[in-house]
């Protein structure tokens, strides 16, 4: 059961965060060939001034900097190809849903031991 955790700056009013979370769950489920209800996702909005790139702060999500920070925790046993597919899908979903530049998402895969 993968858990996707997104931390990002406040989004423009046109961004539908629940829709983005659903999209993350469904795309991950497709790549793992599991039901979407087996994938969990959370979103934490970082306060303006609490996320800096060097000495640069932003109040809203910029397109080309201050990328969303994503952590995926999943039980062991996924192949390298599955992991790569999930990482790419999550990046693509967030780039599309948030209208940010390609490559402006930071994702970490954390493998948990089952049991």
Structural summary, described in words:
The chain has 115 residues and is an alpha/beta fold. It has 2 helices and 6 strands. The chain has helices spanning 17-32, 80-98, and strands spanning 3-8, 40-45, 52-53, 56-57, 69-75, 106-112. Strand 5 (69-75), helix 2 and strand 6 (106-112) form a beta-alpha-beta unit. Helix 1 (17-32) packs antiparallel against helix 2 (80-98). The protein is globular.
Helix content: 25-40%
Using only C-alpha atoms, the radius of gyration works out to: 14 Å
Approximately how much beta-strand content do the residues carry? 25-35%
What is the N-to-C order of secondary-structure elements (H for helix, E for strand)? EHEEEEHE
Instruction: Write down the overall geometry.
Output: globular
Query: Taking strands numbered 1, 2, ... along the chain, how are they ordered across the largest sheet?
Result: 2-1-5-6
Q: What structural class do the secondary elements suggest?
A: alpha/beta
Number of strands: 6
* Largest β sheet strand count, sense and barrel closure: 4 strands, mixed
Overall average pLDDT = 96
Distance between the termini: 12 Å
The tally of helices reads: 2
